[in-house]
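Methods — Computational structure assignment.
A single polypeptide chain was analysed. Its primary sequence is given first, followed by the predicted tertiary structure written as C-alpha cells.
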Amino acid sequence: MPEAERSVRLELLGRMRVWRDETEVTPGPPKQRAVLGLLASRVNEVVEIDEIIDAVWGDTVPATASNSVHTYVAGLRKVLEPRRGRRDTGEVLVSTGGGYSLCVPPENIDAERFMELLARARRSLAEGLAPAALREFDAALGLWRGEAYASVPGPFAETERAHLFELRMTATEEWAALMLEVGRHSELAAVLTASVARHPLRERLRWLLMLALYRCGRQARALEVYRETRELLIQELGIEPGPDLRKLHAQILAGSPELLAPVPDGPPPLGRPGPRERGPGEFVALRPAQLPPKARGFVGRSAELGALRAIIDEGLAQPGSKPPLVVIDGVAGSGKTALALTVGHEFIDRFPDGQLFIDLGGFSPGRRPLDAAEALTSLLLSLGVSRSHVPAEPEGRTALYRSLLHDRRVLIVLDDALDPEQLRPLVPGGPACVLITSRRRQSGFVARDGAHRVEVAPLELDESISLLTYLIGAERVDGQREDTVRIAEMCGHLPLALRLAAEQLTAHPRMRFAELVERYTPKNSRLDRLAVENDPEATLRSVFGASYRALDPEPARMFRLLGAYGSPVFCVSEAAALAGLPWGSARGLLENLADNHLLDAEGRDNYRFHTLIGTYAAECSRQEPERRRHEALRRVLRYQRARNGFFSGTENIPHIDHPAARL
C-alpha cells in the first residue's frame, strides 16, 4: 500500500478527527465530514455518487447535489493529499467507476479497529480464553471518546451513530458479564455505576450492576438500584421491569446461593491491591500516596494550623457527618500549599486508604488550568482505573470517581483551584477529607457547598526572621539583624519572596545583607531581583501576573488605574474618581480585587495594596494608554480638592457620589 495511504488516520468514535503524517488536520465543513464519514465506513470500497447524495441529503436533495459532492471530494483531497497535483491520480481518495473510494488500511480507522477487536474478544470468549477476551474488550471499549460520528450531519451518520451505539453497549454488557464470571465484581460495581448514570434505561446494565453490588456485600444498595429502576421505567415508559430484573430482585431478597460469586480471578478488594502484576487493560485499584514532601523551613501559622486541625478532628470524630471540606486561600506566594501539605502529613495516618494530590493549575504562569473532566481523568488513573475504563462523558467520570471513594477514608489535596465549576465534580462523598488551595476566596463554594475557609496572610515579622534564619543559617544572620528586618519588609513578609531572597544570599556566601538591601531598594527593580531565571513558578512577576490575567476586564482596568495612582492606601471614593464610575460600581470592583487577593480590605471603605503587588500594579499601569492615565489622575485630583473644600482634614467620605467621580 502506498505510503500516502498509510499516513492517513481517522477517528469516528466521538467527534470526527483526522490525522495526516501524525498531524491532526481539519476535515472541513459539516457536509464534507458527512462524505468522509460514509467513505470511511466502507473503506477501500467504491461508493457511488448517488449513494453519497442519499447519505448526505436524504429526501431533501438539492439540484446542485452532484456538483456539491465533487466540491466536497476536492476539499477532502486538499486535506488528505495536499501535495497531489490537480492532474495526478489520487492515492488516498480515488475516483473510480462512477464513485469514490477511501483507500487506507482498515486498522487506521477506529471504528474498523473496534469491530475487529470486538470480534477477537468474542472468539477468545468462545474458546474459553477469559484473560485474552478481557484484554480485547478493554482495547475495543477504550477506543470510544464520546458519541460516534459526533458533529457529522445527514441520515447515514444518524443511522451509523445508532448502530455503533448499540454495538458499544452490547460489548460493554458482554465485558461486564465476563468480569462477573471471573470474580472481579468490586471493580465492576464502580464502573457500572457510571455507565448506568449515562444510560439509565438499559435494563441489562442495571441487572449486572445489581449482581455486582450484591457480590460486594452491598445488598441494600442492590435493592435500591432495583427500586430506582422500577420508578424510572414506570415514569418514563409506563412499564414494569422485565422478568430478568424481577427474578434477580427476588433472588437478592431471598439471599439465593445461586448468586454467589465464583472464586475471584482478579485483584483483591478495592484499595487493597495484592502483589501480583497488573495485566494489560486490567483495573487494579490502588492506595495512592501522592502528597509531596513538606516545605523545608515551614514556620509560624499556629492560628491557621489550629483551625485546620479542629475542622478535621471534628469531621473524623462524627461518623456519617459531612466530610471535612476546607478552602485555604490567600495572596500569591503566601504559602497556601505549604500549609495544606503540613497539616496533610500531620494527619496522614488518619486516612489509611491513601492521599491524592493534584495541581489544578488555576493560576499557574504559562499554563492552562485543568478543567474538571481532565482532573477527574488524572484522579481516576491514580485510583487504578485503566485508561480504557475512564468514561468519555464528564458526568460519568464524576459518578465513577465518587463510587470509588464512597466508603474510603482518603485525604485529597486540590491545589491552585480556579473556581467552583472546576472544583465541585472533584469533591466526593463519604469519609474523604478535601483540602483546597486557591488565590480566590471561593465564596460561592463556601456558601453553597458548606466548605470551611481559612485565609493565609503574609507572615509576622518574627516569623519572617525565623524563616530567613532557618534558610540562611543563624551564624550569618547574627550581627545583621537590622538588615534582615529590612529584607523581610522589602519582601512583604511573603514566604515565596523570602525564600527567593534567602536563595540569593545562600548562592553568594560572601554577600553582606546590606548589599541585598541596596539591590532591593529601587521599587521599580525589586521584582526583577525576586526571580529565578527560567522558572516562572519561582518568579514573583510571573506569579502575580497569573492572578492579574485571570481578572475580568473591568477589575483589571481598576487594578491598572490604582497602580497609576501609586498610593498604597485609598478609599472607595478615590477609586471611583480614578475609574470615572459611581461609588457602588467602584466598590464592587474593589471587592472583586480583594476576593482575588490583589487588594486587602481595611475597615469599611478603605483598601490597601500589599507592598509587592502595589509595585506590580504600577508596572501594569503602563498598559493603560497615557492619555487615560492622565485623565484618571485629573479626576481623582478634582475629587480630592472638592472633598477638602467641604471637609476638614483628610477623612474618607462613605457612600459619596461626588460629581468628580462621574466625570
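Note: Confidence is low (pLDDT under 50) at residues 263-284, 646-663.
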